[in-house]
Design goal:
The chain has 420 residues and is α+β, with helices and mostly antiparallel strands. The chain has helices at residues 12-43, 112-172, 178-234, and strands spanning 47-48, 55-57, 59-75, 78-82, 87-92, 99-100, 105-109, 238-240, 245-250, 257-258, 263-268, 273-280, 292-296, 302-315, 318-325, 338-355, 365-372, 375-386, 390-395, 402-404, 416-419.
């Protein structure tokens, strides 16, 4: 019995050929469909309406590159309050950790010690004034004695001159020898020399008395100033806060004796601040003392600062450093306020730049769309420094070019886009 063609068994080779044909048919269909989609996308080109995207113009200007981190505001400095006098601590009006305003009383000192010092100083002043009076009387007596002695010396010189004159007259008449005339002349010369020497000595003596008087007067003035200062201290034995701040410590106990100028109170200065910044250690090489920092208080306010001390120890992968704001008393500052810090790491002052926008994905090389008449034409560019405001254009664009800075990720496969 013969088998019909339909009843004959299919060989393995035939089955394989059928399967290959089916697969090739499917692949051809997929490729055909992809080609049709591509053709349709090419024929139906997307368009942009002018009010649906934002553009910016390439220009020359400053571009600075920064790295961001965070910082915490802290009080910058502390003030040490010294004791105004030697006294006993009588009472405390504030305690460590307490907020005080300028002029608030912190401590009260006992006046007993100052009263004793004032009494002793008054006695010293009285003694000094007595010495001044005695010195003044002694100077007056000395002047009178000097004047009297000078008058006596002058009278003696006049007498001797008269004798000399008489001897010369008698010599002319032959009544005396020349030797007596010479002796009379020598007596006059000797008297004049003695007067000159005595006058010089008296001048020195008077000058010495004058210096002694000036020294006593100066000593008196110094003592009077000390007395006035001590009296002022006696009226200022309330230790007051010189600035608004927080009391850090009080370095004395009630009843203890405190010496003048002894450190009494440490108080933080609420008027000026610094910032303690922290940054991941992998960026620590970008830090340098004196480096510029932009301090972001909020979206609308920022100010400049400089990097101060950089701590050499890494803590939990973070490097800590000080930032000194240009305006240390900014009205928005308060303790423990967290701020953003943008550390300047590079800067170019006159380079091609483009305003930042959603089009920029951080790539060094990317495709942008440059506006030419009614089209946005794809253009390859190379970027340089970047920040939150501008992107440096190293090549691909020129000054004056208008570029779409809106999101263009959906059009990256196109060479140009129609603008309506």
């Amino acid at each position: 019995m013969e088998l019909s063609t339909m009843d004959r068994p299919i060989s393995a080779n035939q089955l394989l050929r059928r399967r290959v044909l089916i697969i090739l048919s499917w692949l051809g269909g997929i490729l055909l469909l992809a080609g049709l989609v591509s053709a349709v996308r090419t024929m139906i080109r997307p368009t942009l309406e002018a009010d649906q995207f934002e553009t910016a113009t390439v220009e020359y200007g400053l571009v600075s590159e920064t790295i961001s981190c965070t910082g915490t505001l802290e009080l910058e400095s502390r003030r040490m309050i010294l004791s105004p006098a030697t006294a006993v601590l009588q009472e405390t009006k504030a305690s460590p950790g307490q907020l005080v305003q300028s002029g608030d009383t912190i401590l009260i000192l006992d006046q007993a010690g100052i009263r004793k010092q004032l009494s002793e100083m008054q006695l010293e002043l009285k003694t000094l004034e007595n010495r001044l009076q005695k010195q003044s009387l002694a100077a007056s007596i000395t002047r009178l004695e000097i004047e009297h002695q000078r008058d006596l010396n002058k009278m003696e010189i006049e007498r001797l001159q008269s004798v000399w004159k008489d001897e010369k007259t008698m010599l002319s008449m032959g009544g005396t020898p020349p030797e007596k005339v010479e002796q009379a002349k020598q007596a006059v010369d000797l008297a004049r020399k003695e007067l000159d020497i005595t006058s010089a000595k008296n001048k020195l003596k008077l000058a010495e008395l004058e210096v002694t008087g000036e020294e006593l007067q100066l000593e008196r003035q110094k003592l009077l100033q000390k007395f006035a200062d001590l009296r002022a201290q006696s009226q200022q034995l309330w230790v007051l806060a010189p600035i608004p701040g927080v009391v850090i410590s009080i370095d004395a106990e009630i009843g203890s004796m405190i010496q003048q100028n002894q450190e009494l109170v440490k108080i933080s200065d609420l008027r000026t601040y610094k910032i303690t910044g922290k940054i991941n250690e992998k960026f620590s090489a970008q830090l340098s003392s004196g480096g510029r920092v932009n301090i972001i208080i909020d979206q609308d306010q920022s100010l400049e600062g400089t990097i101060g001390n950089i701590r050499p120890v890494v803590e939990s992968g973070q490097v800590y450093f000080d930032v000194l704001p240009v305006q240390k008393d900014h009205p928005r500052f308060r303790p423990n306020l967290e701020v953003e810090l943008r550390i300047l790491v590079a800067e170019k002052s006159n380079t091609l730049r483009l305003k930042d926008g959603p089009f920029y994905d951080g790539s060094k090389k990317l495709k942008v769309f440059k506006v030419e008449n009614n089209r946005a034409v794809a253009t390859e560019i190379t970027t340089g420094l970047t920040n939150m405001n501008y992107i440096e254009i190293e090549n691909g664009l020129e000054e004056g070019d208008e570029v779409v800075i809106s999101d263009v990720s959906d059009f990256q496969h196109l060479e140009w886009i129609e603008i309506e």
